[in-house]
Design brief:
With 329 residues, the chain is mostly beta strands. It has helices at residues 7-10, 30-36, 72-77, 159-165, 203-209, 302-305, and strands at 14-19, 26-27, 43-48, 53-60, 65-69, 84-92, 95-103, 108-109, 117-118, 128-133, 155-156, 172-176, 182-189, 197-199, 217-222, 229-236, 258-269, 280-286, 292-297, 314-318. The longest helix is centred in the N-terminal third of the chain and has 7 residues, at 30-36. This is TF-B3 domain-containing protein.
């Protein structure tokens, strides 16, 4: 069965979504988002003409909608390893029809049969993956609201995630942090509910080191091969709105900013005081108002970002420090 939509229905509701296998997050077209942002929820469903369904989670900003989870499923499911585009039509009720999948050479890709569904809590390359709001003790993936509760010394893991990630119920787990370093945390299992488990010893230090605040959202991932290790990544920025570059203040004590910028230029530079150190990654970024600023990513963090940053693309930046540029290069 082929789905067709009349031009009257699709007027203003059809768009092309760029797909990249190198990016964890994508962006809905600005023109479409501004028109329909009031009726869109955070969880969206994309269905192609073969009946395959993929779900994504978006973070709604004042001017743009960022796909913060499920974006890579587009490239892996449709075989767009080198990137491509999806021709999409919005049909209402947070549902979208994928009319065509085009590769980087603009060739149409065939849809797979029988119908298949990719949900948010499972990725093709990850054994177990789940998204929760750290300010909420439920595992409901759609709950991404910002609560008033401050994270404590323990964190409840989603029941579905815990059941699949730790079938043998170990007492400790090695947690890989966003920086790449691991920290050993203790697991506390509840006897009444066998799948109810808390991260206790080590969680307070993790929260403090990463400045977790109200509304912070984390992604918990665990490989099916090694159940003694899991990773925690900050899925969405901690601030709830974008900051303009002109509003940044290096003298401010509160530096919990979030930027949406385009990378204009990037290059490497060696530290003058130590010729044996790995070079830093330098960038010039620009916001939507045209203001520019220079950024630096130092080792060892550089290796986690340098392959994902491309000139000309949009990025959301957070958890950075701000200082006056007093060096001459």
């Amino acid at each position: 069965m082929k789905m067709t939509l009349t031009s009257e229905i699709t007027q203003g509701k059809s768009f092309f979504l760029e797909v990249s296998s190198e990016m964890d997050m994508g962006e809905l077209p600005v023109t479409f988002y501004r028109r329909f942002q009031d009726e869109l929820s955070s969880l969206l469903s994309f269905i192609d003409c073969a009946g395959n369904e993929l779900e994504v989670l978006i973070e709604k900003g004042p001017r743009t909608g960022i796909i913060v989870n499920g974006y890579r499923n587009f490239s892996s499911f449709y075989g767009l390893k080198l990137g491509g585009w999806l021709k999409i039509s919005y049909v209402g009720s947070n549902q979208f029809i994928i009319n065509e999948a085009l590769d980087h050479n603009m060739k149409v890709k065939d849809f797979s049969y029988p119908p298949f569904k990719v949900s948010l809590d499972v990725k093709p390359t990850v054994g177990s993956d789940h998204v929760i709001d750290i300010t909420d003790n439920s595992s409901h993936v759609r709950d991404t609201s910002y609560k008033t509760h401050t994270p404590s010394s323990n964190q409840l893991l989603p029941a579905r995630f815990a059941k699949r990630a730790f079938p043998r119920k170990f007492d400790f787990v090695n947690v890989v942090q966003p920086s790449g370093h691991s920290i050993r945390m203790k697991l506390r299992w509840r006897d009444i509910r066998p799948n109810k488990v808390f991260l206790i010893k080590g969680w307070r230090r993790f929260s403090k080191n990463h400045k977790l605040v109200e509304g912070s959202v984390l992604r918990f991932s665990a490989s099916s091969i090694d159940e003694t290790t899991m990773s925690i990544n900050i899925l969405t920025p901690m601030a709830t709105s974008f900051t303009m570059l002109k509003d940044l203040d290096a003298s401010s004590d509160q530096q919990n900013w979030r930027l949406k910028v385009r990378v204009i230029k990037k290059w490497s530079i060696s530290a003058a005081e130590d010729k044996y150190r790995r070079p830093m990654l330098e960038m010039i970024v620009m916001d939507q108002m045209g203001h520019r600023i220079q950024c630096s990513i130092r080792s060892p963090h550089r290796r986690f970002f340098e392959n994902d940053i491309t000139e000309g693309r949009l990025y959301s930046l957070t958890n950075f420090s701000l200082a006056a540029n007093d060096k001459k290069y």
